[in-house]
Write a structure and sequence with these properties.
Helix content: under 10%
Distance between the termini: 15 Å
Strand order of the largest sheet: 1-2
Number of strands: 6
Order of helices and strands: EHEEEEE
Shape: globular
Structural class: mainly beta
Length: about 100
């Protein structure tokens, strides 16, 4: 299975740590490098949005938090008939492991 999140996708995030997008920006979510990641500012809520250039069916979500910084209240929303709706809640472990949801 291959990732459907690619450079042609549009990424938006709620914040970037210290507004330092050069070191902590959204581009690091999809760079396939274990040494980089998106870092948000502190506080809730934090979010990310992935927009695909064409309709896509998502079968799995792979997510990896930095240990000690995992989200506590997480959910997935999707565009259903032109409106954003909550699809499911996810419960990530507070570890540095790759986690699969959905």
């Amino acid at each position: 299975m291959s990732s459907i999140v690619q450079e042609s996708c549009s990424l938006r995030v709620s914040s970037v740590l210290n507004k330092n997008a050069k070191e902590f920006g959204k581009q690091y979510m999809i760079d396939n490098c274990d040494d980089t990641c998106w870092n948000s500012d502190q506080g809730s809520p934090q979010w990310l949005q992935v927009s695909f250039p064409q309709s896509a069916t998502v079968e799995e979500i792979h997510i990896q938090f930095q240990g000690g910084f995992a989200g506590k209240e997480c959910w997935i929303e999707g565009n259903v008939n032109g409106e954003m709706n909550k699809i499911c809640s996810i419960y990530p472990e507070d570890s540095n492991a790759l986690q699969i949801s959905f």
